[in-house]
Design goal:
Length: 179
């Protein structure tokens, strides 16, 4: 049991390290009507990016048409690689927009305000860059390994905690050789 706790402590520390070394970045900015804002990220090949965003308008225009924007990401060659969303007002916390950089360079996040109500939009942007293994963020790999270790440990604890079946021979002290 102590080895399980030690293993989980090490993996938990590794997970904390990944979150500290790959902090969640935050920006809030305004996109004027019929304008666009571009935010750039310098990425290395294999880096995984998770993006969360929410939009808002002045309080007098709190309807769906007043919050939508166009959002997409371009690679270092200005090719749209992901996320051309014609009308997005935000991503869910558990469903971020994600992609993996396939080459080193500057990637750009584009926020266009040309659809919906003719008003400016305030965008609240959160993103995280992290190393990845086969396109999976390294912190997800650590969480997966922790889950496997916990399941295997629970299995063995249950297996060894079950009472062993006793036989009449073992109760009487008779050995298998018949003596």
């Amino acid at each position: 049991m102590a080895s399980l706790l030690l293993t989980l402590a090490v993996l938990g520390t590794a997970l904390l390290f990944f979150y500290i070394t790959n902090p969640l970045m935050h920006e809030t900015f305004t996109v004027a009507w019929v304008h666009d804002v571009v935010k750039e990220m310098n990425l290395k090949s294999g880096e995984h990016v998770s993006i969360w965003l929410w939009t808002a308008t002045p309080l007098s225009m709190q309807n769906a048409g007043g919050r939508v924007i166009r959002f997409y990401v371009t690679d270092p060659h200005a090719q749209v690689i992901a996320g051309y969303m014609p009308g997005i007002s935000g991503t869910g916390f558990f469903m971020p927009f994600t992609f993996v950089a396939h080459q080193d360079g500057v990637y750009a996040m584009h926020f266009e305000n040309s659809i919906g109500d003719p008003d400016s939009r305030t965008v609240s942007l959160y993103y995280r860059k992290a190393s990845s293994i086969l396109g999976i963020p390294i912190e997800y790999v650590v969480i997966f390994v922790m889950a496997i270790i916990i399941v295997v440990t629970i299995f063995f604890v249950i297996l060894f905690a079950l009472p062993k079946k006793r036989t009449v021979r073992s109760e009487l002290g008779i050995s298998h050789s018949g003596q």
